[in-house]
Write a structure and sequence with these properties.
By secondary structure, the chain is mainly beta. The protein has one domain: Jelly Rolls, CATH 2.60.120.370. The protein has one helix and eleven strands. The chain has one helix at residues 19-32, and strands at 2-5, 37-42, 46-54, 63-65, 69-77, 79-86, 103-105, 112-117, 120-124, 128-134, 141-150. A hairpin with a 3-residue loop joins strand 2 (37-42) and strand 3 (46-54). The longest helix is centred in the N-terminal third of the chain and has 14 residues, at 19-32. The two termini are 15 Å apart.
């Protein structure tokens, strides 16, 4: 897991061949105020989803993991909390969906908490089980981009 602000995104370009393209899309999406929807960046190797929602409570949000994609979760506006833990500290709650590249997990006991505000991002690798979209202090509207980067 990596947690940082977009002003430092170039530090991570060398970690994956598509990270620079991913952050270029994020910057463009913010500058152009792209509407909610799915966006193809480079076929199935790199695509994004612009989302808007009301932050969730612990019981409503889902603890998820992915096998074939890295998530870059970038908050445009609002504030949300994301819980992150290593895959070894949780157990599978539902069967893996290979079409959506997702499986859901029970909450573990070793999660760390990230608070993302406008401009912040988290890079979540397949070993990072995460519960995004959580209310931080008060429930609020969040606008966010999730970029999926194929491993």
């Amino acid at each position: 897991m990596i947690f940082d602000n977009v002003k430092n995104c170039s530090l991570y370009y060398g970690l994956h061949k598509n990270f620079e393209k991913a952050f270029d899309f994020i910057k463009k999406a913010v500058a152009e105020n792209l509407p909610v929807g799915k966006y193809e960046i480079d076929g199935t190797d790199l695509y994004a989803s612009v989302q808007e929602y009301l932050s969730k409570d612990m019981e409503t949000a889902k603890n998820e993991g992915h096998r074939n994609y890295i998530d870059i979760q970038f908050v445009i506006s609002g504030t949300e909390k994301i819980l992150v833990e290593d895959i070894s500290s949780s157990s599978i709650k539902s069967e893996y969906n290979d079409i959506k590249d997702v499986e859901f997990y029970f909450d573990g006991e070793n999660a760390c908490s990230l608070v993302l505000e406008g401009g912040d991002f988290a890079i979540l690798f397949p070993h990072d089980i995460h519960k995004p979209g959580l209310t931080y202090k008060t429930q609020e509207n969040v606008k966010k981009i999730v970029v999926k980067v194929k491993i």
